[in-house]
Design brief:
By secondary structure, the protein is mainly alpha-helical. It has one domain. It has ten helices and two strands, in the order H-H-H-H-E-H-H-H-H-H-E-H. The radius of gyration is 21 Å and the shape is globular.
Length: 310
């Protein structure tokens, strides 16, 4: 229960801190854009984007006391230990993540749900790919540290491995469905507190739960199980980055097709069809069945505190 209680306090602290931080940060952005003439684009940003960024800031700031409470403040405990296998597992994860969602993307294009719509020039294509690759790296590193290294790492100290995997997968999925809602009227000190409940309604919206919510839950379970089986985050980071890359480029590289799609194929979001769920279930089975080679820490006097499962 200690893990559940501290995790709940952490999540509530993140939500409350972000809601209170967003209004003054929004006012600072307006001042910088209008009065100081700095970064004029800030004046055009809606308030809900400030709240989203503040959620990330609060989550990162609140990590340190949470990490210390569960004694995760070492590279090995967080899954960051660099071993002779780390580079290969990072590359393998990237390849598996890229190929798995490319299979979904090719299926959606092959049946006509989407059609290819490539940029008119090679420089534009390279710019699109480069931006998506950079986003994939940043998102994969941040989310793996948060969801697998810290949240899952804390859960597995107190709960059985299956419960920790499923619970962390559910949290991972739910937090990805915060609704994008506009804030009407002027921004005041309590605007974040009033907007946040409306954003959280997206977490329980029926259209988000099946199959997209279930797909993300299984995806989170795949990443957590990979961490448990390999003893490090490197494979999970690569796998996650491969997924994010396709999620970022697919809509830009394709346009509407002639086939209506439906629940099986999904849409340009890639993860909202039953096909994507089948792919995730296949990855879950694969990660569970592979006998991963045991890794050793980069220094002989720093033993792994959680060896990979056989």
């Amino acid at each position: 229960m200690r893990a559940a209680g501290l995790l709940l306090l952490y999540l509530l602290g993140v939500l409350l801190g972000a809601a209170l931080l967003a209004p003054p940060l929004h006012q600072l952005g307006q001042w910088a854009a209008v009065d100081a003439g700095l970064l004029p684009g800030l004046a055009k940003q809606p308030f809900h984007r400030y709240l989203n960024r503040c959620l990330l800031i609060a989550a990162l700031v609140g990590l340190w006391p949470f990490i210390r409470a569960f004694r995760l403040n070492r590279t090995v405990a967080l899954g960051w230990a660099w071993t002779p296998l780390a580079g290969r597992r990072l590359g393998l994860g990237l390849a598996v993540g890229f190929v798995s969602l490319s299979a979904v993307a090719l299926g959606v294009v092959a049946v006509g749900v989407r059609s290819l719509n490539l940029p008119p020039s090679l420089p534009l294509l390279l710019a699109l790919v480069g931006k998506a690759a950079l986003t994939a790296i940043v998102v994969a590193v941040l989310e793996e540290v948060l969801f697998r290294g810290v949240i899952f790492g804390a859960m597995r100290q107190s709960w059985s491995l299956p419960v920790a995997i499923v619970s962390s997968g559910v949290i991972y999925a739910v937090l990805h469905f915060m609704a994008r809602v506009e804030h009407p009227g002027p921004v005041v000190w309590h605007s974040g507190l009033s907007l946040l409940p409306r954003m959280m309604q997206g977490m329980i919206a029926p259209e988000n739960l099946f199959p997209a919510g279930l797909t993300l839950t299984v995806g989170g379970a795949v990443l957590a199980l990979a961490y448990a089986r390999t003893g490090s985050l490197w494979f999970s980071i690569g796998l996650h980055a491969g997924w994010v890359f396709w999620l970022k480029v697919f809509k830009s590289l394709t346009g509407p097709g002639t086939h209506p799609g439906g629940a099986f194929w999904g849409t340009d979001k890639l993860l909202d069809g039953w096909l994507a769920l089948l792919v995730m279930l296949g990855l879950l089975a694969g990660v569970a069945c592979i006998r991963w080679q045991a890794q050793t820490p980069s220094t002989p006097d720093e033993p792994l505190n959680r060896p990979p499962l056989a």
